[in-house]
Amino acid sequence: MEEPESNRIGYAWLADHFAVVTLPYWRESRALAKGVRRLVEKDGRQIEYLPAARDLGNNLFAHLEFALKWEGLHLELLRKVLPRMDAEQVADFVRSKPTGRYARVIWWLFESFSQVTLEIPALEVGNYVDLLDEDVYVPGPVRKAKRQRINVNLLGTLDFSPMVRWKGLGAWNESEMQKRCEEIVGEYPPEIFARAVRYLYAKESKSSHEIERETPDQKRAEAFIGLLQQAWHRSFLKKDALVELHRAIVDPRYSDPGWRSERMDGDKQVYVGETLAPGVERVHYAAPKPADLDELMSGFLEMAKQITARRVRTPGGLKVLPAPVPTLISAAVISFAFDFLHPFSDGNGRIHRFLLHHVLARNGFGPEGIILPVSAVILNRPREYDQALESVSKPLMELVEYTMDDRQRMTVTNDTADFYRYIDCTELTRITIDFIRETIETELPAELRYLASYDDVRLRMREVVELPDRIADLFVKLCRQNGGSLSKNKRSLEEFAPLTDGEIEALERLVREGLGIKGGTV
Prior knowledge:
Layout: E1 6-9, H1 11-18, E2 27-32, E3 38-42, E4 45-50, H2 60-70, H3 75-81, H4 87-96, H5 101-114, E5 129-130, E6 143-145, E7 150-152, H6 174-186, H7 190-211, H8 218-230, H9 239-249, E8 271-277, E9 280-286, H10 290-307, E10 310-314, E11 317-321, H11 327-341, H12 348-362, H13 374-380, H14 382-397, E12 402-404, E13 410-412, H15 426-464, H16 469-481, H17 488-491, H18 501-515
Parallel strand pairs: 2-4, 5-7
Antiparallel strand pairs: 1-2, 3-4, 6-7, 8-9, 10-11, 12-13
Helix pairs in contact: 4-5, 6-15, 7-8, 7-13, 7-15, 10-11, 11-12, 11-15, 13-15, 15-18
C-alpha cells in the first residue's frame, strides 16, 4: 500500500526538528494532505493519519502538548529534546496554562532532565495528575512531585524505567493463573509434591543451560540448583547477590568481581553474536557500553525494589507488603531488563531466567517452594522467545555504531546509553505471560503426572524383575526418550545384558502403559 502524502506531527515532528535519533516508538501521528482519519497497525506499532486540519505547523509547544496527550510518554525523546529548549519559552508556556495537565508534565520533565529550575512558583492547590496514563500503561508505585502536583507513577525512575502497555498484553488473569497452579499441585499428596519440588529445580537448571547450549560441570549445576532453592527466601535483587549468583554459575576463570565494568579489562565491550566463519562475526545484540553500566544498573536495582513485594519486620514478625505491580509483569520486566543490560561478561541469560523465578517466588506466586519449569516451555518454543528478544535487539542494533578489530573485539562509537533506559517491554511481557500460562496448564501437570505414574511403574517393574534403582531409572529414561521401547543400541548396554528378551518386552510394556506412551519404536 502506497503511503499517503502527509506531515509528521507530535513526537515524530519533534525528532525531525531537533534532529534526534531514538528507538522506534510504538505510536506515530501524521496530518494528511487530503483524506480522512485512519489508523494503520503493523508489527506492534500504530500510525494514525489525521485530517489536514490537524496539522500543527511549526508550533513547537503545540506538537509537544499533542504528543503527550495523544501519543503517550516517549521518555527517550523527551530526555534528549527538553534540555535543548529555551527555559524562558518553557516557563512562558507553563504560565499560560499553569494548571493544565500537560503543561505541568512538561514543567516537571524539563526541570528534571535539564536540572534548571524555572521561575515559576510551586502549585499550592489543585488535584495531582498522573504522569503515566494508567489506562494505557502499567503504572508503578506513586511518588509525589509536590512542586507541579504530579503523581510520578513510572515503574522505575527517570534514569531507568522500562514501559509496558496494557493493550499489547492480550487477555490474562493473574489470580486465576495462580489459583490454577495451586489447584494442580493440591491434586497430589505431600510426598509427591516434595519430590516434585526437587525434580523441578533440577529440570529448570538443565533446561536453562540447554537454552544457552551449555552443559555445566556437576559442581556448577548443583550450585545453580541450590541458588534456585533460595529464590523463595532471600533477595537476589541486590548487587552483591547478583555477583554471587554470577560467580556460582560461570567458570571461575571468566567470572567478574562485580559488574563487567569493574574487571581489569573493564572497557571491554560485550555483545551477543555468532561466528559465521573464521574472522566473520554476525552481531545480534550489543550491550550497554561499560562506561554507562554503573548508572544503568543502579536504576535497574531501584526499579526492581520498587515493583516487587517488600518484606518488613514488625513487632509481630516478618510481614510481606503487597507488590504494587502485577507479579507476572514485574517478573517479565525485571528479568528481561537485566538481560538487555548484560551486566556480566557471561551467564546473563541464565540469571535472566533465574530472576523470572525469583520475582514469582518473592511475590508469593504459587505454593511455597514450587518452581515452574518455564525454561522447558521456552526450549519448545525457541522461535517465539527469540522473536520477543528481537523486538528490542533488532531496532536497537540498527542504531548502534561500532567497529570490530581482527580479534573480534567490539568498540561502540556512538552514544547509546539512552537506548537502554526506557525499553518497551510490552511484547516481552506478553510472551512471558503466555509461557507461564502454558507452564501451568501443560508442563507442570505433565511433570507431576509423570512423577506419580513413575512410582506406579517402578512398583510394577519389580513384579517382572528386581532391578537395582540406577538401572531401573536408566531403563525408564531410555524407554521414554525412544517412544516407549529400548533401541537396539541401548539393549546392548551392559546394564541390560542380564535381562532376557521377554523381560525387556514386559518392562517396555509397563513403561508404555504406565506413562501413557503410545506405540514404541526400535
